[in-house]
Design a protein that fits this description.
The chain is built from 31 helices and 28 strands. With 723 residues, it is of the alpha/beta class. It has 3 domains: 209 residues, Rossmann fold (3-Layer(aba) Sandwich); 209 residues, Dimethylsulfoxide Reductase, domain 2 (3-Layer(aba) Sandwich), CATH 3.40.228.10; 106 residues, Barwin-like endoglucanases (Beta Barrel), CATH 2.40.40.20. α9 packs parallel to α21 and α24 crosses α26. The radius of gyration is 24 Å and the shape is globular. The chain binds ligand MGD (2 copies) and molybdenum atom. The site of molybdenum atom has 2 residues, from loops.
Length: 723
């Protein structure tokens, strides 16, 4: 059977795309914005800020990536035309694809949809804010909820969570619950911290990177330079992924002429486990290390606890259990173990391929066990590096946009605001959707994002959100959530992006590095407001002036002062306006084996092998090369050779067994729903596993949650193909 043409990642197609974007919005305009002192808008690797656009924290220039250009150019496109909502009824808007929503342009004036309306109507800010404030005034705190995506600033996130808490609720949730929450939970259990233990320079010192369940060629492109350089200095890159991602085999770095022409090798070993097979694979690797006598016994004795139980669990599994559970041959697992044993400095990177499972926390615990057992954490050049998603998702969490606050933050906030904060536990993201479905939510405020589109079981998410009395979105662009995730009344408030803000804002990268963005001019003329301006006005309308003077918090400098007072490790943010010195958050990086746990030791955990239903295919929902989450820029997936979004990637072996030809249209049935007319694409994917694009595939998936992190199993969901 034929395989479609795939391409190594990066290279000339990326450059051609960049040129086409530059022509679209004006080369000089785009260049000036790209070079402005603002943090990059895409992934959490982070660049830009005070060192200037396209510069990383190691002062390297030019740091280029197709994604940052894409996001920047998209924000610079024209406004949604004035006639758009008059001419397009809600029924028509519901039929728009994610790409059509994105292509409609920037939102420039407030919009409202009320019960019985057939169309969204532009309204004044006065009217829109009356509705938004009224929603909070007319309900009780436990029936209100606040969601944040990860693109907004620390200042906006801090202010909105403060408003929520002073108003009286802990129903404060962010997109992490659908993203890296499992990493946060597991890292806390193992090391007493929720974020990366290494810096960007550490990656440059490592001699081995293990990359599991992540596709940085598309999603964190600037990490590819690090991986290519690691190979150049004879280091190892072990990729663990059921899909053979072309960009993880070879990547054409656009900033290097030779690499641009011929490509740089990335993976030195490519392991293809079953989706959801990582726990078995990682425990198997631990078992192999034990059998080879390659454990770091000294590290275990001095700096770890819980090792005995975890090591004996690994030893007690049979090789048959390991091989069947992981789908990886014993010899391959032993090869991985011997590479780890030889390494002097290993870094463990992962993303959604590990977290989007019912065993998400166990996946990250099993990986942490490997790091601990080899002594590869708590020293320079070695440690844990979750590849975080949105450019400021980590900051949003750091400044308290989470249902539970750490005791330290809670007490500091109570002191700063002079009042006790609510004690009732807040809802996580999925629990909020369940509460809405049960009719228990009256007001929902969403600071960016597309909560509807990010949910499993899209039909249920629509049903749930439609029961909410008022949904208020603070958005830059349209997305399907504005139509399918509407409440009885829906208010859309148009906001300025970070490079358009009048005041500076801050963002935190996945390396715990806090950047200062200077803001700038609006990219399109319109009535957009800054996120903090909207939140301040809302607070002033809904809450008393005392004990908190909200008008004072209209100044970002004041908000930063408060963040410095309240959030541990953030003291330097108070001085940022004067020093303009960006900083790494204190206490996050572990260059010595003294961890944040109570005992100061790293903790190993027993990770039982997960069970999966038999006789089903395991569906991965992943991102294409041409999308950023629910925002679709291009329909085709260039690197994987998938022609459009209504495709299912399947192995030649499974296709043969099911009698499916390349290009044939099939029906895919999941636990929540069915999609028809899906084109089968034969690809380099492990037998037993199939893959489709998110968010479209979310109609198929039931929200099976990881119990500890509440993260849905967006990967390894059972599906059946009907021919
Ligand atoms: N261009 C671009 N950049 C982005 C984003 C984007 O949408 N577009 N999104 C941002 C966000 S919010 C996030 S969270 C990150 C997401 O970044 P990633 O996690 O890289 O994104 P995904 O495409 O969800 O999945 C990653 C990989 O996991 C593999 N995988 C799936 N299931 C398994 C499994 O069971 N085991 C293993 N070992 N691998 C598995 C898939 O084959 C895929 O290659 O990227 C961020 N950056
Ligand atoms: N099946 C499946 N589902 C998934 C995933 C998966 O891999 N598979 N991935 C999950 C993951 S990792 C994540 S992070 C979530 C994503 O969930 P979200 O973060 O909620 O969704 P996004 O698609 O990133 O949100 C895009 C919207 O954000 C708005 N926006 C952009 N910039 C700004 C800004 O500066 N300010 C404001 N206020 N708004 C802005 C625009 O309106 C844009 O349409 O989805 C999750 N859902
Ligand atoms: Mo994410």
């Amino acid at each position: 059977m034929t395989h479609r043409r795939t391409r190594a990642g990066g290279g000339f197609p990326a450059i051609a795309y960049a040129i086409s974007k530059a022509i679209e919005v004006g080369p000089w305009r785009l260049w000036s914005k790209m070079r402005s002192r603002n943090a990059c808008k895409t992934c959490a690797v982070g660049m830009g800020g005070q060192l200037g656009g396209m510069v990383n924290e190691a002062r390297h220039f030019p740091e280029v990536c197709k994604k940052s250009l894409q996001a920047q150019a998209a924000d610079m496109r024209g406004a949604v035309p004035p006639w758009f909502f008059e001419r397009n009824s809600l029924t028509h808007l519901e039929s728009l694809t994610p790409k059509q929503c994105e292509d409609a342009g920037r939102l420039i004036c407030p919009l409202v949809l009320q019960p019985g309306d057939s169309n969204y109507k532009p309204v004044s800010w006065q009217r829109a804010m009356d509705l938004a404030a009224g929603a909070l005034k007319q309900t009780v705190p436990q029936r209100a909820a606040f969601y944040s995506s990860g693109r907004s600033s620390n200042e906006a996130a801090f202010l909105l969570q403060s408003l929520a808490r002073v108003y009286g609720t802990n129903n404060v949730m962010n997109c992490s619950f659908y993203c890296h929450q499992a990493s946060g939970v597991a890292l806390k259990m193992a090391f007493g911290t929720g974020t990366a233990t290494v810096t960007l320079e550490d990656v440059g010192r490592a001699d081995l990177v293990m990359l599991l369940g992540a596709n940085p060629a598309s999603n964190h492109p600037r990490l590819m330079t690090q991986l290519a350089e690691l190979r150049e200095r004879a280091g190892e890159v072990i990729v663990v992924n059921p899909v053979r991602e072309p960009g993880l085999e070879r990547f054409h770095l656009p900033s290097r002429p030779l690499s641009l022409l011929f490509g740089s090798p990335i993976a030195s070993l490519y392991v293809q486990p079953l989706a959801g097979g990582d726990v078995a694979f990682l425990v198997g690797t631990l078992k192999a290390l034990g059998e080879m006598g390659a454990l770091d016994r000294e590290f275990l004795a001095r700096h770890a606890e819980g090792s005995q139980a975890a090591l004996s669990h690994a030893a007690s599994l049979t090789w048959q259990e390991v091989v069947e559970g992981s789908g990886v041959e014993r010899a391959t697992i032993e090869r991985v173990a011997s590479l780890l044993a030889r390494s002097r400095a290993s870094i463990f990177c992962w993303a959604m391929g590990l977290t989007h499972h019912e065993s998400g926390v166990d996946n990250v615990l099993a990986l942490s066990n490997l790091a601990i057992a080899t002594g590869m954490v708590g020293k320079p050049g070695a440690g844990m590096l979750p590849l975080r998603g949105h450019s400021n998702v980590q900051g949003v969490g750091s400044v308290g946009f989470t249902p539970a606050l750490t005791d330290g933050i809670r007490q500091a906030l109570e002191k700063a605001y002079g009042r006790a904060l609510p004690a009732a536990p807040g809802l996580d993201t999925h629990a909020m959707i369940e509460a809405a479905e049960a009719g228990n939510i009256d007001a929902l405020f969403a600071l960016g994002g597309n909560l509807w589109g990010s949910n499993p079981d899209s039909i249920r998410a629509s049903r749930a959100m439609r029961k909410i009395k008022t949904v208020v979105y603070l958005s830059t662009k349209l997305n399907q959530g504005h139509f399918h995730g509407r409440g009885q009344t829906t208010v859309i408030l148009p906001v300025l992006a970070r490079d358009e803000e009048k005041q500076g804002t801050t963002q935190e990268s996945m390396f715990n590095f806090v950047r200062l963005s200077d803001g700038g001019q609006a990219n399109v003329p319109g009535y957009m407001r800054s996120e903090t301006e909207i939140i301040c006005e809302l607070a002033e309308r809904v809450l008393d002036r005392s004990p908190v003077d909200w008008s004072r918090l209209a100044s970002h400098r004041e908000i930063r002062r408060l963040i410095a007072e309240v959030v541990p490790g953030w003291q330097e943010v108070a001085r940022l306006d004067d020093t303009r010195k960006e900083f790494t958050i204190a206490g996050r990086i572990y260059h010595s084996p003294c961890f944040g746990t109570e005992s100061g030791k790293a903790r190993m955990h027993v990770t039982p092998l997960p069970e999966f239903p038999e006789d089903t295919l395991r569906l991965i929902t992943f991102r294409s090369e041409g999308q950023f989450n629910t925002v679709v820029y291009e329909s085709a997936d260039l690197y994987r050779g998938i022609p459009h979004r209504h495709c299912i990637m399947i192995s030649g072996e499974d296709a043969g067994r099911l009698g499916i030809a390349d290009g044939q249209r099939v029906t895919v049935r999941g636990e929540a729903g069915e999609l028809t007319g899906i084109e089968a694409v034969l690809g380099q994917i492990r037998p037993g596993v199939v893959a489709m694009f998110y968010p479209e595939a979310n109609v198929l998936i039931k929200g099976r949650l990881d119990k500890r992190s509440k993260t849905p199993a967006f990967k390894s969901a059972p599906v059946w193909i009907i021919v």
